[in-house]
């Protein structure tokens, strides 16, 4: 017979199967292959007279308290107990520091499938941090199954505290030098079950007393079906200050979707392709390039239609390469902070993902209507003509957008004094408001290097611009020409940005804002614009549940990030657009 492929009769529980496709009825029996030991049907053949799936098994006997029914897998004690006459068994144990107070802990229905399932009357209790355990069971009302049961020993380089497994690693001194810098000498790995359907694995720098584990790998499986969700053993783990590498094995039947934002022919990832994640102002007409967003998340879908998700919480630039049998991550910094989502359906995996990162707020009703937007409407009269033509052709129009045409020399928060006079713009917006229509202007974060520009002088006064390595405001170039960039991680950036928006609103009563160029876009990167590196403030945990920070207080003030630390651009570039939105 072959090992079982039925999910509810797991081969790990000792099940085998045999399929017969052409028979109207069968008689059968089981033996050990040499004719010595036969099945338990009292020397009588089994008979099946119609097609279907049949299971044949005796009651689970021969096991006693403390027997090892599965091998040690370094995840602790998993105690199984069958008490047919007890509706709720209790588990009491001594792990070296004394017995628990009677009656101990209530056991949970078994999560195992097959012969040790809850349907067969089995309960379980897990002890994740002990080297030797004495166990006893009772019904919670003075009736005991045993006084002291057997035990086995579990040892591991990790320690389990409060549901979080912590493993300390030291560098392997035999590793060869590479151009990416020195290896981090010590790492700490934390594994936590953050939800019933989510596991978090984080690999970060640490400089304290440590264990040595060489090589270090980790594997996450879904207990319901044993499917491997993440297995890092295929490619060596590399952790340096400016280069990190980790991989996961991929089953042959697994289709992988996601890892964006990029332009490509299919959402499904292709073997042999490399996908770059680095948020930048890149139009989407060019194929196979990374564009405006960075989303290190993929959805895996196997041939059984079951799905899982993997999110790497890392905002650094990275390449993700799909090779035969592996998905390899290569990033230029940060930490390896994985959240592994159990699924098992695609809808459940995506729901778990949006629950993790935060779900968008409900938009205003009018925003779901018909919008008109383009560059090239060069005057108030041009905007009015567009609106009037919609009306004369009986076409619905709910929102009018305006590109940088309305600005004075492309300076943010200004109006062109010739073609978009304030009085004329205010009158136009009043007209469309009277018809229930809305107006949205574009806003770019770049502030012109112009001593006559109020936003420029105010930004210098508040010292909120991103700086180069010499401590001077970093000079780039966008539509206005030489340009400085607000550091939206700076604690005063919200006040600066809010004041500029209020100045614009005092001129024209807009209904929303089109935030553009906030990747941040720069037309002349590198030494020709000054510095080769930039620095700025950076809040801890800024990318985690990002939408929670955009909630509005009762006063109408947006919530911003509470703490800061110094960080270089390569660490924060791909989250700057989110922080701009939060400040807005």
UniProtKB/TrEMBL annotation:
One of its GO terms (biological process) is carbohydrate metabolic process. CDD domains: GH31_N. One of its GO terms (molecular function) is hydrolase activity, hydrolyzing O-glycosyl compounds. Keywords: Glycoprotein, Glycosidase, Hydrolase. Residues 192-317 form the Glycoside hydrolase family 31 N-terminal domain. PROSITE patterns: GLYCOSYL_HYDROL_F31_1 (PS00129). The keyword Hydrolase applies. Residues 360-549 form the Glycoside hydrolase family 31 TIM barrel domain. The keyword NADP does not apply. It holds the Pfam family Gal_mutarotas_2. Belongs to the glycosyl hydrolase 31 family. PANTHER family: ALPHA-GLUCOSIDASE (PTHR22762), P-TYPE DOMAIN-CONTAINING PROTEIN (PTHR22762:SF133). This is Maltase.
């Amino acid at each position: 017979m072959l090992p079982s492929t039925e999910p509810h009769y797991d081969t790990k529980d000792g099940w085998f199967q045999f399929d017969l496709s052409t028979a109207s009825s069968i008689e059968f029996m089981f033996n050990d292959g040499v004719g010595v030991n036969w099945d338990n049907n009292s020397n009588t053949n089994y008979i099946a007279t119609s097609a279907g799936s049949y299971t044949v098994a005796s009651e689970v006997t021969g096991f006693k308290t403390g027997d090892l029914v599965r091998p040690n897998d370094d995840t602790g004690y998993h105690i199984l107990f069958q008490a047919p006459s007890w509706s709720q068994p209790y588990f009491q144990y001594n792990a070296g520091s004394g017995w628990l107070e009677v009656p101990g802990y209530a056991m949970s229905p078994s999560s195992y499938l097959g012969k040790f399932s809850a349907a067969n009357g089995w309960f379980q209790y897990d002890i994740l941090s002990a080297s030797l355990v004495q166990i006893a069971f009772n019904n919670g009302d003075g009736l005991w199954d045993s006084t002291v049961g057997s035990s086995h020993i579990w040892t591991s380089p990790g320690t389990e505290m409060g549901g979080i497994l912590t493993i300390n690693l030291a560098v392997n001194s035999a590793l060869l030098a590479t151009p990416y810098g020195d290896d981090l000498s010590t790492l700490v790995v934390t594994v936590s079950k953050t939800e019933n359907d989510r596991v978090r694995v984080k690999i970060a720098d640490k400089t304290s007393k440590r264990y040595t584990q060489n090589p270090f790998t980790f594997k996450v499986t879904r207990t319901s079906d044993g499917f491997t969700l993440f297995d890092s053993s295929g490619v060596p783990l590399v952790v340096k200050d400016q280069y990190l590498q980790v991989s996961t094995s991929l089953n042959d039947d697994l289709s992988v979707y996601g890892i964006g934002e990029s332009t490509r022919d299919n959402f499904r990832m292709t073997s042999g392709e490399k996908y770059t994640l680095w948020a930048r102002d890149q139009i989407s007409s060019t194929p196979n390039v990374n564009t405006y967003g960075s989303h290190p998340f993929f959805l895996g879908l196997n041939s059984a239609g079951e799905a899982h998700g993997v999110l790497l919480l890392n905002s650094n630039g990275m390449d993700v390469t799909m090779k035969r049998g592996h998905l390899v991550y290569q990033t230029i910094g940060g930490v390896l902070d994985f959240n592994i989502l159990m699924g098992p359906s695609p809808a459940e995996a995506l729901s778990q993902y949006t629950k993790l990162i935060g779900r968008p707020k409900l938009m205003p009703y009018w925003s779901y209507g018909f919008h008109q937007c383009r560059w090239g409407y060069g005057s108030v009269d041009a905007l009015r003509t567009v609106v009037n033509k919609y009306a004369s052709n009986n076409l619905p129009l709910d929102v009018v957008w305006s590109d940088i045409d309305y600005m004075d020399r492309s300076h943010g928060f200004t109006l062109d004094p010739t073609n978009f006079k304030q009085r004329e713009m205010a009158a136009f917006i009043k007209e469309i408001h009277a018809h229930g229509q809305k107006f949205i202007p574009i806003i770019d974060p770049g502030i012109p290097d112009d001593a006559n520009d109020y936003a420029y002088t105010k930004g210098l006064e508040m010292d909120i611009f991103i700086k180069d390595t010499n401590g001077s405001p970093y000079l780039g170039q966008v539509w206005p020409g030489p340009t400085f960039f607000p550091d939206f991680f700076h604690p005063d950036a919200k006040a600066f940005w809010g004041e500029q928006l209020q100045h614009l609103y005092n001129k024209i009563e807009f209904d929303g804002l089109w935030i553009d160029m906030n990747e941040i876009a720069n037309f002349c990167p590198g030494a020709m614009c000054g510095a080769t590196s930039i620095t700025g403030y950076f809040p801890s945990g800024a990318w985690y549940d990002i939408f929670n920070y955009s909630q509005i207080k009762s006063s109408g003030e947006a919530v911003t990030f509470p703490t800061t630390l110094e960080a270089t651009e390569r660490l924060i570039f791909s989250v700057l657009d989110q922080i701009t939105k939060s400040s807005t």
